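User: Just a sanity check before I run the rest of the batch. Below are the structure tokens for the first item. I only need the designed sequence back.
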């Protein structure tokens, strides 16, 4: 019985030693006698004890690489502090293990180097205006290199671009000047439109008066009356002001003007008496 028990124990130990459970979302690499043998998928797998060895188990899920703030010089020699985030995943676990020694360090170094190269090709203004384009350029350049590592870069996000304090002040002053300039342009445009509308109104009024005088000669008396009314109103306004005034009247037209004023005043007096009597 003892030999049988021993054999059973050996078989149990072999089974336990050869059974390997790989979690969902992970993959593992097996080497046999020091050489790559096969890849283990999620679930229960069996290997040959002593001959086979699991040399790597890693996730194939999406991972995040945080890029620490980096000092970068733009094309117009402005120092910037830039940081970002890279989202990536392993597509080929064999390449990720055998093509590069330290995958995480390699990705971090490659990302910072490529980021500096791309920013160095742009000025400060272009950097602030085309962040999305730089993200795309960085993504394409990283994928071109990491493909041989069995890694796919999914997204790149440049989180912040921080210029020096002196540059920030200059940018704020420039934005303020641009806002004031736009406000002045809008105000001038509004005044121009108002002047155009006023001129159009005056033109229309003159046209109406001209048409009325041409078709109805009696309208001239109405026009003379309106002119006199305007003159009287202007005189009243001048009289209400505390400042001294001097009013000049064309001598050649003084009698006509005085006649118009007299008629207008008489008309106003007549209206006032009628109102008083009522």
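Assistant: Here's the designed sequence for the first item:
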């Amino acid at each position: 019985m003892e030999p049988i028990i021993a054999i059973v124990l050996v078989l149990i130990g072999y089974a336990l030693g050869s059974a390997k459970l790989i979690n969902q979302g992970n993959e593992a690499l097996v080497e046999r006698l020091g050489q790559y043998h096969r890849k283990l998928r999620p679930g229960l797998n069996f290997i040959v004890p002593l001959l086979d060895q699991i040399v790597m188990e890693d996730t194939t899920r999406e991972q995040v690489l945080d890029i620490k703030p980096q000092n970068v010089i733009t094309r117009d020699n402005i120092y910037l502090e830039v940081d970002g985030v890279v989202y990536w995943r392993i597509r080929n676990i064999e390449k990720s293990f055998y093509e590069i020694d330290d995958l995480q360090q390699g990705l971090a170094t490659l990302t910072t180097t490529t980021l500096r190269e791309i920013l160095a090709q742009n000025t400060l203004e272009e950097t602030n205006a085309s962040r999305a384009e730089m993200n795309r350029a960085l993504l394409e350049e990283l994928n071109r290199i990491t493909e041989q590592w069995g890694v796919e870069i999914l997204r790149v996000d440049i989180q912040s671009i921080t210029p020096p304090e002196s540059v920030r002040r200059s940018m704020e002053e420039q934005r303020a000047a641009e806002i004031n300039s736009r406000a002045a342009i809008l105000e001038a445009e509004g005044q121009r439109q108002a002047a155009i509308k006023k001129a159009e109104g005056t033109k229309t009024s003159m046209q109406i008066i001209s048409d009325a005088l041409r078709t109805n000669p009696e309208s001239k008396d109405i026009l003379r009356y309106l002119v006199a009314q305007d003159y009287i109103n202007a005189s009243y306004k001048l009289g209400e002001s505390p400042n001294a005034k001097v009013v000049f009247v064309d001598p050649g037209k003084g009698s006509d003007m005085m006649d118009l004023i007299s008629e207008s005043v008489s008309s106003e007096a007549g209206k006032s008496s009628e109102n008083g009597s009522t």
